[in-house]
Design brief:
There is one protein chain. About 30% of the residues lie in helices and about 20% in strands. Helix 2 runs antiparallel to helix 10 and helix 9 runs parallel beside helix 10 (about 260-275). By secondary structure, it is α/β, with parallel strands linked by helices. Helix 6 links the parallel strand 4 and strand 5 (about 125-130).
């Protein structure tokens, strides 16, 4: 990865979480709700990056009292915005060859829609969409109904409480017409171990070395209790490439709606401990992510690896 060129485009590194929070929340932010596209609709007709989609979601599950969480049951507004941004011909990740037609991307907390996977998978070698088990059935259905891309499931990591590295199969859907793959995998940041993930990544890696080029997370930071597991998972995923002694680095891209300064600061303090962090500047963004939009994109490079280039 031409790291110097990429970082030169990113501008100043984020060094102080409190200053970054102050700068962002001092903007003229629009009045917004929690950030759902439509929390009451069971079906949404969307056009994202020129692609028409019919997305099924579950308002009933969203409003349930499921202890492990329900937020993945509907579409959050930041997701189609991020998909539009990453699909741009001028997108910096493709322009600087962070992402290429052979890349592997893993998304954390993808939710039921699969929107980013549907837009990005045709441009890369492999896309792995991950979330908790309860999301996968509707996610697989949405992928199947909106693409000709091959969608399959990977084996899931072992639970941390397990005494062995056994793996169980998650739900699978096989589609045809292209050798590009969207894979789904159950991944719980609090409970799952990533020890088995290197073997899982090599199972169907026909076009790449099996290492992750980018980790994507959209609106995953809304609960302070999940911040440490989220950051730990991001770091462990980025360390996989370091463990393989690769000359490339894994980029972590975090998109979010600006809601709570307290939660944002807590996330950035934790994230900045493991990662060097840059806010993606306006000149590299689509209009929907620029200053005063109420949304923000940050890029992280694992501290222990960024000095290698």
């Amino acid at each position: 990865m031409p790291l110097r060129e990429l970082l030169g485009l990113m501008g100043d590194e984020v060094m102080d979480a409190y200053e970054e929070s102050f700068l962002l929340f001092s903007q003229d932010l629009p009045s917004q709700d929690l950030g759902f596209v439509d929390a009451k609709a069971t079906t949404l007709e969307l056009t994202v990056a020129g692609k028409d989609m019919t997305i099924r979601q579950s308002p009933t599950l969203l409003s349930s009292n499921r202890a492990e969480g329900t937020t993945g049951a509907v579409i959050w507004r930041v997701t189609p915005l991020f998909a539009e941004w990453i699909s741009l011909p001028t997108n910096v990740l493709f322009r600087q060859e962070v992402l290429t037609q052979d890349s592997i991307v893993l998304e954390l907390g993808c939710g039921i829609s699969g929107i980013i996977a549907l837009i990005l998978a045709p441009k890369i070698g492999r896309y792995i969409a991950t979330d908790q088990d309860y999301v996968l059935k509707l996610l697989t259905k949405n992928l199947a109904e909106n693409t000709n891309t091959s969608a399959q499931s990977s084996a899931k990591p072992a639970r941390q409480s397990s005494s062995h590295a056994g793996r169980s199969k998650s739900q699978a859907n096989q589609l045809s017409d292209t050798n590009r793959a969207i894979e789904t995998m159950a991944l719980d940041w609090e409970l799952d171990s990533l020890l088995a993930l290197p073997d899982i990544l090599k199972l169907s890696s026909r076009h790449t070395s099996g290492m992750i080029d980018a980790v994507i997370a959209c609106d995953c930071i809304y609960n302070e209790a999940l911040i440490d597991p989220f950051v730990r998972t991001c770091a462990e995923l980025c360390r996989l490439r370091n463990a393989a002694l690769s000359s490339k680095l894994t980029v972590c891209i975090v998109a979010q709606q600006l809601r709570s300064p307290t939660v944002f600061e807590s996330w950035l303090l934790a994230f900045n401990t493991a990662f060097r962090v840059w806010r993606v500047p306006d000149e590299l963004l689509s209009e929907e992510f620029k200053e005063n939009s109420g949304f923000v994109l940050h890029m992280g490079l694992l501290r222990e690896t960024v000095t290698r280039e």
